[in-house]
Structure formats: structure tokens, C-alpha cells
Amino acid sequence: MAETRRRFDQDFRDGAVRLVNETGKPIAQVARDLGVIEGTLSNWVNMDQTPPLCPRLRDPPRPP
Question: What does the alpha-carbon distance between residue 46 and residue 16 come to, in Å, rounded to a whole number?
Fold first, then answer.
């Protein structure tokens, strides 16, 4: 039987990332404490540390 995927709102994600960054606890421990899969929390932390890409920055420069 298929399970439904849990959805986490942005406030929850931000709070989880803040716990990792401010407490210095390992991602695995924070994930266990919150009942989140470690890989999911790791993705959130990585996304928080990576600046968003602007689509225009990926385009090659146009000649004048």
C-alpha cells in the first residue's frame, strides 16, 4: 500500500534549518528529533546555503 507524502510548510523548514545552524547539532540528530528523514533535512540545509540562480545569469553573454 502506498503511503502519502508528508508536506512541510516553509516555516517548519526554516525552523529546522535554523536548529541545525544555530545549535551546531548534527543534521541526523535534528532530523530524528523532528521526525524528518535525514536526507530531506540535509537538502533543506543545502538549499539554504546556496543562493538562488537567476535564469539570466545562466545565459551566455550576448555580443554587442
Answer: 12
Question: Model-level pTM?
Answer: 0.72
3: which 3 cell numbers?
Answer: 503511503
Single-letter code of the amino acid located at 62: R
Whether 58 shows a pLDDT value over 60: the answer reads no
What are 27-42's pLDDT values in tens digits?
999 999 999 999 999 9
Rg (CA), the chain: 17
Segment 32-39 long-range contacts (CB within 8 Å, at least 24 positions apart): 36/8
Burial 29-60 (b: 16+ CB within 10 A, else e): ebbeeeebeeebbeebbeeeeeeeeeeeeeee
